Amino acid sequence: MHALDLDDSPLLLHRYAHGLTAAQVVAAFNDLDPAGSASMRTARLYDLEGWPQGRRRPSPRVLDLLARIYQTTARRLVTDETYSTYGAHDRELIDAADYRHLDPFQRVRLTAATPEISHVSMEPTAGAWPVRTSVATSGVRPEACAALFRALTAEEADVKRRELLFELAVALGGVPALRLLRHLTSDEEARLAQAVQGTSRVDAQTVTAVEKLIAQCWQIEQTYGPAKLLPVADAQRGVIAGLLSRESLTPALRDRLVVAYSGLSHLGGWLCYDLVDYVGAVRRYEEGVEAAYEVREPGIIAHLHGCLAHVASSQGKPAKALDHAYAAQAWAKQSSSRLQQAAIAHPLARALAGSGKGEEGIRVLDRACELASAPRTEADPSHLAWCTPEVTHYNIGYCLAALKRSDEALRAGEQALTGMGRSFPKTRGRALVVQATALIQKREIQAATQRLGEAAQIIAEHSSLRLGHSVRTARQQLQPWATNTYVRALDEKLRALGVPA
Fold it and tell me: Of 17, 216, 322, 329, whose CA is between 20 and 30 Å from 102?
């Protein structure tokens, strides 16, 4: 409403809308910097709010922190003209900063089924390839189309290329797909658009473009968040299913597209799992396995059985988890990737821990740590970048905590956190929860609440409901100390970050 009456910058209007003084915003900004190195001053804030008349244009990092304070998106804090002055990388950072879930008055909350993924249909569809279910490739809402058009208008001057990118982005899931399309060449964009529209045949370059998009999806999975990425993965999967059902392809190209379909089923299943949608995860994983069987890819089959084992463990079904884990282990032995064999050890160890065989799980992970430490080869899939000794130590800590060997679990967790750095934030969050669990077992309440508070901060930045579930489960273990000062402070922090009880 302020924008109707005041000709001021979006930054200033958002501050007015929240009824905050410049001093209050500066204090909140400096408190949000985890390193304690923020140097925002009132005069600098005024400069940022006055851009372009002011001397300083806000950086993507500054916009990220201010968006968190105002519980909005960073993109809403700058005009179209200002947005167009940033480079491609900075625009990606601005597009990714979304804190609307912190606003208690927002209709859309990450704790519920979000409209962003409501266009996905899992009902049986006649003629769908090669599985019993299909995904709609168009379902981008009108408001999303308007946002897509604004984004393209701001960054793309060529009208023809803007139209081509618009059609591609709509087919591939909307605004988030733009970040992926930036990694294609102009020729790859044109060939992919023609294939999607059905105006040209699928060739090797088209399939290469599809493979590049999938690789980029995995690159941004940790930072973009599952709620935003799932519609993109499902839309791409629907596009490939359409190509496979209607195109006459050479055997080599068909196999590559089938592998791509399986890879997107894997990605979609993983994102559903992160959103605690176990039914959606299982369906996508099973469809991915079915596609992988067609091309007889043992590494893919092994990994998807491992993913199904993870879901079964999370559902409290240890027998089913072991069935999938042992199937994964058998298929992994036929794979040329030693890293794949290391990756399979993780769901197997968790399934063993859930069956009361934590000691055996630790031995499996010790061997996996050796395999994960070896140099990577061309046979190692790019989506296994997460399979490192540090992540293996985190799972060792999980098994040790399940065995109530608290001191050893803490040491394993510290090894994981030290080596992991900030590379895999959601995995780091789960490692913090494992440490908190071990500390609760030792009745070190202050340290446990500190670890859970750090994990909760990660939830505020990434839409991982599974990490939120882990934090809530650990918090329940603190219930005997509910009146403790540190536990009450943790509860306040969880409420402030929008993590539901």
Answer: 216
